[in-house]
Amino acid sequence: MTNLLTAFPVSAPAALGMAAAALAMVLTPGPNMMYLASRSVGQGRRAGLVSLAGTGAGFVIYMLMANLGLAIVFVAVPWLFIGFKAAGAAYLAWLSWQALRPGGAGVFDVRDLAEDSDWLLFRMGLFTNLLNPKVAIMYLTLIPQFIDPDRGSRVAQGITLGMLQIGVSMTVNALIVIGAASIARLLASRPDRVVRQRRITGALLGGVAVLLAREVPSRAHV
Which of 7, 46, 62, 115 has the maximum number of C-beta atoms within 10 A of its C-beta? Predict the structure, then answer.
């Protein structure tokens, strides 16, 4: 057992820390959660799961790019990383306003959506995730903090931590997809809950936007 733990690319504390960070991030409302919930409520659970498959593909692409050279690009062109973070903070601030403004929309509001094909749902899930600033920042700034140079290959550690993050995120998002319709019906039966949910969502999005805005001036590092 000891030899198995020693052979594992990352330490147990690093794995637990990454899992906790991934859980905190996936539970914070953002573009992925809003898209998946709206698809599940508006077009059914199957549409939500197909969209989630696209989201998972986006995670894998980001993980591979971050471990195989994307970080180098952001280090070499710092304004690109700073601009990406600024755009992400602005986007989350806009989502916060959409939830907090009078008559705004919450994560689990029922919407009339077109009956899109599986391929289109997959692509939309993929692009929603690829354009999600939280995901890019996580792979470029958060995961490297759990990498220990003394444990060997940085790439192996980065991929291991990335797969752990993907597992946590996909599990939580799958539960959101499965329960979205029930949650929407529960909220619809109590208008006061709808307002409360929108305010909580808006406040969380606004808080994340502020945190990202504070980090905008910092450069990427490897």
Answer: 62
Q: Which residues of 145-161 are buried (b: 16+ CB within 10 A; e: fewer)?
A: ebbeeeeeeeeebbbbb
Q: What is the pTM (predicted TM-score) of this model?
A: 0.70
d(CA 17, CA 168): 12
Long-range contacts of 192-197 (CB under 8 A, 24+ apart): 194/106, 194/109, 197/106, 197/107, 197/108
Q: E strands along 75-203, which residues?
A: none
For 140, phi then psi, to 5°, come to -90, -25
Whether 209 contacts 75, CB under 8 Å: no
Both tokens of residue 18? 């990454």
d(CA 169, CA 18): 11
Reported as a single tens digit per residue, the pLDDT across 165-203 is: 999 999 999 998 888 867 766 666 666 665 665 666 667
Mind giving me the DSSP string for 68-85?
A: IIIHHHHHHSHHHHHHHH
Q: Which residues contact 22 (CB under 8 A, 6 or more apart)?
A: 138, 164, 165, 168, 169
3-state SS track over 16-41? HHHHHHHHHHHHCCCHHHHHHHHHHH
- The confidence score (pLDDT) of residue 189 equals 62
In 3-state terms, what secondary structure has residue 8?
coil
Q: In which residue are the tokens 């792979």 written? A: 139
The alpha carbons of the chain give a radius of gyration, in whole angstroms, of 18
